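Incident log, support desk, overnight shift.

02:14 A customer reports that sequence design results differ from what the structure should imply. Their input is reproduced verbatim below. On-call engineer (initials T.W.) acknowledged and began investigating.
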């Protein structure tokens, strides 16, 4: 039985094009999240309802339209059969639950990524409250830098101390915001020039944002400059750098000299 309503029928191109499919799935989840946000819930109740509603939408659409693929989602039990699969969707149904639960904040996102045979090949990051979806099918063109000083996106609630030291060395400005996906997209959008994180994340926090950022020509790595690897048994991926290419050497060099403690 179809899970679709008349307004959510899958576009023809998304039936065979994974990039278009990822965009469509992220946007369907985003629409549902906006609906839930209008139901009068607050705080934890709104967070939980949003997580559950977005997971339900994404899981149903993947099951119907990509039934042979495996899924790794923050809001579902980890099926280890994915470790033997060629195609795994890596999903964060609602990235930035705190920001989502504080209307009218717009710095939350939906992440949909596809890993194939060792590589991220597809990514979509929807920012529903902005009405925008950044994706690998139509890669973003990063605008020329508009700030004389480098800008580093950081958590608005818990910016890592080492990033403050990094900012001092680079004479950079710290730009607080929510959601890992929003921080990565801020570099794509020229709202920031780098996102440097070492406080703990999981694959679903950054798979789709990294796929989108790479497609846009940005530098992406672990904080020591090593490769970001996905679909591992241990899904922790605690640190990353996403930045304009011209800043990469300075940031990696700082971390190698000073660490992240």
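02:41 Re-run completed on a clean worker. Output:
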């Amino acid at each position: 039985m179809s899970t679709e309503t008349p307004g959510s029928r899958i576009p023809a191109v998304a039936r065979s094009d994974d990039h278009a499919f990822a965009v469509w799935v992220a946007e369907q989840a985003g629409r549902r999240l906006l609906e839930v946000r209008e139901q009068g819930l607050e705080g934890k109740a709104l967070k939980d309802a949003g997580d559950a509603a977005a997971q339900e939408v994404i899981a149903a659409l993947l099951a119907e339209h990509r039934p042979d693929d495996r899924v790794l989602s923050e809001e579902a039990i980890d099926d280890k059969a994915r470790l033997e699969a060629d195609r795994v969707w890596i999903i964060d149904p609602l990235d930035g639950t705190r920001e989502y639960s504080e209307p009218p904040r717009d710095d939350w996102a939906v992440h949909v990524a596809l890993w194939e045979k060792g590589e991220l090949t597809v990514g979509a990051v929807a920012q529903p409250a902005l009405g925008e979806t950044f994706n690998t099918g139509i890669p973003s063109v990063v605008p020329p830098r508009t700030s004389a000083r480098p800008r580093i996106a950081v958590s608005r609630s818990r910016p890592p101390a080492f990033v403050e030291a990094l900012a001092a060395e680079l004479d950079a400005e710290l730009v607080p915001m929510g959601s890992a996906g929003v921080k990565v997209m801020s570099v794509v959008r020229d709202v920031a020039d780098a996102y440097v994180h070492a406080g703990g994340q999981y694959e679903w926090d950054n798979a789709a944002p990294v796929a989108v950022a790479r497609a846009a020509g940005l530098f992406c790595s672990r904080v020591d400059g090593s490769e970001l690897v996905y679909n591992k048994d241990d899904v922790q991926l605690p640190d990353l750098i996403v930045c304009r290419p011209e800043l990469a050497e300075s940031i990696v060099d700082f971390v190698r000299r000073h660490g992240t403690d």
